[in-house]
Amino acid sequence: FRLLESRTEGEKMSAPKSKRTSRKHQEDDQAVNFAQLHMNTLKRYKRHYKLQQETQNKVELVELVSSHFHAQDVVETDTILLFIHTIKSTAPNKFDK
Length: 97
What we know:
Strand content: under 5%
Distance between the termini: 20 Å
Structural class: mainly alpha
Shape: elongated
Number of helices: 4
Order of helices and strands: HHHH
Largest sheet: none
Number of strands: 0
Helix content: 40-55%
Radius of gyration: 20 Å
């Protein structure tokens, strides 16, 4: 990637982030801001996961979706391996180079 070329002339280059960050800091950097999603997207999430709690407005819907999302238990290594397997099985030899 040529990130340096995309800077305008007056911009300063920020120092690279340390690779040794706490788990809490990493979670903050990767947080999803559900309030930025459209109402229809939040409603689709609620419908897809069959969330039964009634919501009166977007704030309540954001809280419901966010709490459900963060309650999911995801094993990252299994997810990555499944992703790689899916890519390789749907497009064989394309990514093996």
